[in-house]
Write a structure and sequence with these properties.
alpha/beta, Four Helix Bundle (Hemerythrin (Met), subunit A), Rossmann fold, seven-stranded mixed beta sheet, four-stranded mixed beta sheet, binds 5-S-methyl-1-O-phosphono-5-thio-D-ribulose
């Protein structure tokens, strides 16, 4: 499987596939400044926990280039990293990558060395994510039966990572082994990552995919057509409680009721060992307009407010297994860190 071209480093800037425009247009744009990158992350031009982290890791190089001439290089540069850290609160990969870059910055003997090391580190994070995806794909596919039909939610594909995906890396591997019949993708209201992005990348890869409204998932699971539900995650607490796109918890409940296995696929960079359980995970709340406007159509009356959390937390008791590059586990606490 060839990685999806989600993001690429070019000399002094990041090239991003604009995910806000998919599937209507495949447009790339360049981020040359921290302001541009922060805006791209906030508005979901680049999105998905691992991809946000990697974009921010390259962002640290841009931050260092932007502040290289300043009197207090480290302070100024850390200030730019804080701007990136303030973009989206739930995906822990963002903080994981920024912490790595911050410590490189603080331990480098000179500005030039810092820039070189930050870039090497961003490339390494990118390559590690690709390699984790390959391993998770194989481990996940080992759990699936012949001729399987999979239900997924949001986009946990190449678009959400360095290019192979988490949940979708399992689907790509199952397809290449010839054991995959079909994928059902929840449309994923309100920003439609399932309909716009998962359907786009699976269709492009020649994998049969059907989109369903989120509200049809429970009844689909009751029909017995689905062999496994597979999703990614944005942050996994030490006990295994997992935050992922809003609607994942409902899906896990429905899968539990229908006795269908529910797998989370996520690299260890998505583990938050400092959060003992899901109650510690901050859930991003997004704006009213994402719910109130559909295209050019106003669909909620003026003056009516909304509840628009971007993520929910699935309690570990509803998760059959977590598939990470270190193995198939029940929770991060299984691993001897
Ligand atoms: O708001 P998004 O599109 O960034 O949300 C993405 C998800 O919820 C994904 O499922 C998650 O990041 C895992 S991606 C490999």
């Amino acid at each position: 499987m060839k990685p999806v071209p989600t993001l690429e480093w070019l000399d002094d800037r990041i090239l991003l596939l604009d995910q806000r425009l998919l599937p209507a247009e495949e447009v790339y744009f360049e981020c040359k400044s921290i302001q541009e990158l922060a805006h791209a992350i906030k508005t979901l031009a680049v999105r998905g926990a691992p991809a946000i982290g990697i974009a921010a890791a390259y962002g640290a190089v841009i931050a260092a280039l932007e502040t290289a001439e300043s009197d207090s290089f480290i302070n100024q540069c850390c200030g730019k990293l804080d701007i990136l850290a303030a973009t989206r609160p739930t995906a822990v990969n963002l903080f994981h990558c920024l912490d790595i870059q911050r410590s490189i910055l603080q331990s480098s003997p000179s500005r030039t060395v810092a820039i070189t090391r930050l870039l090497e580190s961003a490339h390494k994070l990118y390559e590690e994510d690709l390699e984790a995806s390959r391993i998770m794909g194989r481990l996940g596919a080992d759990l699936l039966p012949e001729n399987c039909t999979i239900l997924t939610h949001c986009n946990a594909g190449g678009l959400a990572t360095a290019g192979l995906g988490t949940a979708l890396s399992v689907i790509y591997e199952a397809h290449s082994r010839g054991i995959l019949a079909e994928v059902y993708a929840d449309e994923t209201r309100p920003l439609l990552q399932g309909a716009r992005l998962t359907a786009w990348e699976l269709h492009k890869a020649g994998i049969p995919v059907k989109v369903l409204p989120d509200s049809a998932a429970a009844s689909l699971l009751q029909t017995g057509v689905i062999d496994a539900v597979i999703t990614g995650a944005d942050r996994i607490a030490l006990n295994g409680d997992s935050a992922n796109k809003i609607g994942t918890y409902s899906l896990a409940l429905a899968a539990h009721e229908a006795r269908v296995p529910f797998y989370i696929v996520a690299p260890v960079s998505t583990f938050d060992l400092k959060s003992p359980d899901g109650s510690c995970i901050e859930i991003e709340e997004r704006g009213r307009e994402e719910l109130a406007v559909l295209g050019n159509l106003k669909i909620i009356p003026d003056g009516v407010s909304v509840y628009n959390p971007a993520f929910d937390v699935t309690p570990v008791k509803f998760i059959t297994s977590i598939i990470c590059e270190m193995g198939v586990i029940s929770s991060p606490s299984d691993i001897d860190w």
